[in-house]
Amino acid sequence: MSTAWSWYVIALVALNIGGCVWLLWWTGRRRPGDPKPTDTSHVWDGDLTEYNKPLPKWWINLFYMTIAFAIGYIIWFGGLGRYPGYAHWSSVQEHAREKSAEDAKLDATFAQFAGRPIDVIARDPRAVSIGHSIFANTCSGCHGSSARGALGYPNLTDDIWHWGGTPDRVLETVLDGREGVMPPWGKVLTGMGGDNAVDYVASYVQSLSDPKGLENNFMAAQGKSLYEGLCVACHGPDGKGNAAMGAPNLTDDYWLYGGSKQQIIQTITNGRHGVMPAHRALLGETRARLVAAYVWSLSHGPAQVAAK
């Protein structure tokens, strides 16, 4: 906060405190010429009279005490813009102190899992339960509470891993994130094969997940040569992808952005840009291991996990 804003706050504080003191003083005394307390002329039932009396002194003094307390509070804790109080207290310091204490408790809880491989952690039901809780708080916003994902967000319960499904690769994904980029190839393909080139390649890509997809399929046959001239660099000549760079397998009939002809054409034409944020700084390595163990266990099942 700048000095000017600080003085603005100080002026407001002084004006409010001074105004409260003046209001109490002005309303707490009788002045010459004021009517007597019994001269209100408001009488009911012969003996019920409305008086016009100031507040009792003890009540007024209580108000003055609250003002004195407020002044002392500001002096001790601060409240005048950028100028700290005598105790040098701040909500930031208080938060940091409480966070440090809670982090110490969490560290003690998580210490037994530090550095352990996630497939080993996945054998511990309690660890998986903790990982599930971390997942629900951190990851469910994208992957859903059931971890089945949505359009553009991968399903974590199947055995399809665009970046590799080994324990180390899953942990690496959680810790450091991933960034998958499918460039827009619409104009390039049009230059290579004409106005129908994107449609041809989309037909061929669709046929890769169908063993009979190329039979009597003119458009897919036309798209095959275009695919081999451009797409093999990432997805490979057989369309099985490359986990090292996040290029998906096109033969498994799993479509992150939708598998309809129109959705595939849109992907080829405009490209895709998917980002999995890094969670190393947010969760720390041990908590990342726990959530990675939970995720890894989803696609392996209890029997497979126990057998590892």
What keywords describe this structure?
308 residues; Cytochrome Bc1 Complex, Chain D, domain 2; elongated; 14 helices; mainly alpha; 3 domains; two-stranded antiparallel ribbon
What does this structure look like?
- By secondary structure, this protein is mainly α.
- It has three domains: 3-91, no CATH class; 105-177 and 277-308, Orthogonal Bundle (Cytochrome Bc1 Complex, Chain D, domain 2); 182-274, Orthogonal Bundle (Cytochrome Bc1 Complex, Chain D, domain 2).
- The chain is built from 14 helices and six strands.
- It has helices spanning 3-27, 57-77, 91-110, 118-121, 125-138, 140-143, 167-176, 186-193, 197-207, 218-230, 232-235, 261-270, 280-298, 301-307, and strands at 43-44, 48-49, 78-80, 83-84, 178-182, 272-276.
- It has a two-stranded antiparallel ribbon. A two-stranded antiparallel sheet has the order 3-4.
- A hairpin with a 3-residue loop joins strand 1 (43-44) and strand 2 (48-49).
- The longest helix has 25 residues, at 3-27.
- It is elongated and about 110 Å long.
- The mean pLDDT is 90.
- Component of the cbb3-type cytochrome c oxidase.
- One of its GO terms (molecular function) is heme binding.
- This is Cbb3-type cytochrome c oxidase subunit.
- Pathway: Energy metabolism; oxidative phosphorylation.
- Heme c 1 binds at residues 139, 142-143, 276.
